[in-house]
């Protein structure tokens, strides 16, 4: 079964805030990456089509890829959407609802540092253009380090807020920082999300768990040679096995630090955002 690169982007701009800069690509780099995908003969498919194949639906094209964007940065509206529309390419944007700018007011609040984020009006416009809108929690916490009640609030309230704004159901979810656990995945499923993306820096296949779809994070320092390998179905593991002892240990450490009121894994003292691949 062919490996599917599911690309994960954050901000696409030439002038990002310092905290997100390591996870930002310029519009020029993004355009070049779209060209590399096209030159390699890959078909960009909607995330929902990959999920349908995972669930036993129609087979995927022989060579395909998926585009996803986390957090909901405003530059998606101005820099990315026009490029996707011009090329008739689908994509999914995962929204941190507490960071969205409402009309004439301030965001409800999130753990993300200050940045220009999408407004509800822009999100509705993107939805009308055919861009899939997905959920990324309310505040962007490390879900696997939270008590069960707070996890439920983050995933349920995010879904309700998006559905109220768009007037239709939303189904795709992405774990902040890529962090999840068996309990978190069960809660996400019970909340009504039918798929969920992690990070893992791995290639997906159509026999993957739909609640743990691996993605390839495209960063500012992602070399063109590595991106080309990903496009060709290499340069990363395919559907890695369950989490490693290192990942489990890291979760226990983060939970302990959270209980002590000293969480790790969010914005660092240097102002950059720490994102893990687990």
From TrEMBL:
Q: Which UniProt keywords apply?
A: Hydrolase, Signal
Which cellular compartments is it found in?
Secreted
Name the Gene Ontology molecular function terms of this record. Answer: hydrolase activity
Q: Which EC number applies? A: 3.-.-.-
Query: Where in this chain does the record put each NodB homology domain?
Result: 63-278
Task: Name the enzyme's class.
Answer: hydrolase
Q: Does the keyword Hydrolase apply?
A: yes
What is the protein name given in its UniProt record?
Polysaccharide deacetylase family protein
């Amino acid at each position: 079964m062919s490996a599917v690169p599911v690309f994960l982007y954050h901000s696409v701009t030439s002038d990002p805030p310092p905290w997100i800069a390591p996870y930002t690509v310029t519009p020029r780099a993004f355009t070049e990456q779209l060209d590399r995908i096209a030159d390699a003969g890959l078909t960009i498919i909607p995330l929902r089509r990959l999920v349908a194949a995972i669930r036993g639906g129609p087979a995927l094209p022989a060579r395909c890829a998926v585009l996803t964007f986390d957090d909901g940065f405003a530059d998606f509206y101005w820099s990315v959407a026009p490029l996707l529309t011009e090329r008739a390419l689908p994509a999914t944007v995962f929204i941190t609802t507490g960071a969205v700018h409402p009309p004439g007011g301030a965001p409800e609040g999130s753990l993300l540092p200050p940045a220009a984020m999408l407004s509800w009006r822009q999100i509705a416009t993107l939805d009308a253009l055919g861009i899939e809108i997905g959920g990324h929690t309310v505040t962007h916490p490390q879900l696997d380090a939270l008590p069960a009640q707070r996890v439920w609030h983050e995933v349920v309230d995010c879904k309700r807020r998006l559905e109220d704004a768009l007037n239709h159901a939303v189904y795709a979810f992405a774990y902040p920082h890529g962090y999840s656990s068996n309990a978190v995945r069960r809660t996400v499923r019970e909340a009504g999300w039918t798929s969920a993306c992690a990070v893992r820096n791995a290639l997906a296949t159509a026999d993957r768990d739909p609640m743990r779809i691996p993605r390839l994070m495209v960063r500012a320092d992602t070399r063109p040679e590595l991106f080309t390998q990903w496009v060709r179905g290499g340069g990363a593991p395919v559907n890695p096995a369950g989490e490693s002892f290192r990942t489990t240990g890291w979760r226990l450490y983060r939970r302990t630090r959270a209980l002590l009121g000293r969480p790790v894994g969010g914005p660092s003292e240097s102002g950059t955002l720490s994102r893990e691949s687990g």
